[in-house]
Design brief:
- The chain is elongated, with a radius of gyration of 22 Å.
- It is built from twelve helices and 20 strands.
- The two termini are 23 Å apart.
- The longest helix is centred in the last third of the chain and has 35 residues, at 322-356.
- It has 397 residues and is of the alpha+beta class.
- Strands 1, 2, 8, 9, 10, 11, 19 and 20 form an eight-stranded mixed beta sheet that branches. The chain has a seven-stranded mixed beta sheet with strand order 6-5-14-15-16-13-17. It has a three-stranded antiparallel beta sheet with strand order 3-7-4.
- Keywords: Oxidoreductase.
- It comes from Gloeocapsopsis crepidinum LEGE 06123.
């Protein structure tokens, strides 16, 4: 019998599984999907996430898989540059780095598989939890029942573990929809990978070169978009009309490479309680994050470190005491999650204000040479805690 069952092989689940098995804890990791190549997985590792990987001694794995650092961030409003900030933002710091998350997860599972007390079950979903006064295991879709001292749900924003444990998710008001596109690379990005935030009229999107070499574009779907997005066949022209000339030319030249979009319904929120006796939620299962400034993967890695710090001593000595440490994990992680979501909300509110006001967009664009510096400094102030982490966190086990 495993000591720990982890449901969901995303960044939180896989890194925590590896941390535990390296310290002698028996772990079964369960993943419903048959592979990690789903259409969208977050790529952005902020300095806080890179620091977490360094503490976990996982940076060498990063070097063996597709990855690349961002060179800069640039905000463009009505086809005019508002400001640009080069990476890394901090003197002597680490630049935001894009990583192929499927390759990253596969490499970590391969590393964990070298331990005889690690089991990976892929392509089989968890249907329910097993209870005996507390959670004692999971029921799989193939009919198997698996028992453990602790079940950890890291199965994302639509967590089945959270639902079966009757743990409430309180959604925040700034949920929204994004259409996610992939298209052909541009020589412009090969020489310098800039993350562009582009706003023109009421259309807003982010654009960057992914770790695997194509361009990714996240387009915020306006609530009053005048047609069914599924039937739009001229996306390249929509993007070109909102872009400066050099980028508009790329969209039009490679219009036939724009893949059909995938709808991402962004749910942002937190569970007031992350645990039940015998069960713990981490990552997006406990606190789904906005995609703004790529916090999901970074918070997940930091969740794994905090959980390992509390769980390893307990599971190594007296597993019957594990329920007592679960509230401590939430207490340690919750302040940072709350602050990060507040900072993300501030970013979203500013973007929404610009999207709603044509006069404000015109003013910001027209006055860009005069207001560039104070706006840039304000943006930098908001980014620092989102990049570095709000609270100190060290791996101690």
């Amino acid at each position: 019998m495993a000591q720990v069952i982890i449901v969901g092989a995303g960044p939180a689940g896989v890194t925590l599984a590896l941390l535990l098995v390296k310290r002698g804890i028996r772990v079964t990791l369960i993943e419903a999907s048959r592979n990690f190549r789903r259409t969208f997985r977050g790529e952005g590792l902020m300095p806080s996430g890179l620091d977490a990987l360094e503490q976990m001694e996982l940076l060498p794995i990063l070097e063996r898989i597709p990855h690349q650092a961002l060179d800069a961030w640039e905000v463009i409003i009505n086809k005019r540059s508002l400001f640009r900030v080069d990476e890394p933002l901090e003197p002597g710091g680490k630049p935001c780095t894009l990583v192929s998350q499927p390759a990253f997860l596969e490499a970590l599972i391969d590393a964990a598989s070298h331990y005889s007390h690690f089991e990976f079950i892929q392509g089989t979903a968890v249907q329910d939890l097993l209870w005996d006064q507390r959670v004692v295991g999971v029921k799989l879709s193939d009919g198997r029942n698996l028992n453990a001292d602790l079940v950890i749900g890291t199965d994302g924003r639509n967590s089945i573990v959270r639902q079966r444990a009757n743990l409430l998710l309180e959604q925040q008001s700034h949920s929204f929809d994004i259409l996610w596109f992939k298209l052909a690379d541009s020589p412009h990005f090969k020489s310098e990978n800039v993350f562009y935030s582009i706003l023109c009229d009421r259309y807003a999107f982010g654009l960057f070169r992914s770790s695997e070499g194509n361009l990714h574009l996240g387009w915020t779907l306006p609530k009053d978009f005048p047609q069914d997005w599924k039937h739009v066949d001229h996306w390249a022209e929509i993007f070109a009309a909102a872009s400066p000339p050099w980028l508009a030319e790329h969209f039009r030249t490679f219009a036939d490479t724009v893949e059909r979009p995938v709808l991402l319904s962004v749910v942002v929120g937190r569970c007031p309680r992350w645990y039940q006796p015998g069960l713990l939620l981490l990552g997006d299962a406990a606190h789904p994050m906005s995609p703004i400034r790529a916090q999901g993967i970074n918070m997940a890695l930091r969740d794994a470190i905090a959980a390992a710090n509390h769980l390893v001593p307990c599971l190594s000595q007296d597993a019957t005491a594990v329920d007592a440490v679960l509230p401590q994990i939430q207490s340690q992680r919750e302040p940072e999650i709350i602050k990060a979501q507040q900072l993300q909300s501030q970013e979203a509110a500013q973007a929404e204000l610009l999207e709603k006001s044509a006069f404000l967009r015109w003013g910001v664009s027209f006055l860009a040479p005069l207001i560039r510096t104070p706006i840039k400094l304000s943006w930098l102030h908001r980014q620092r805690k989102l990049r570095q982490g709000v609270t100190p966190l060290k791996l101690t086990v």
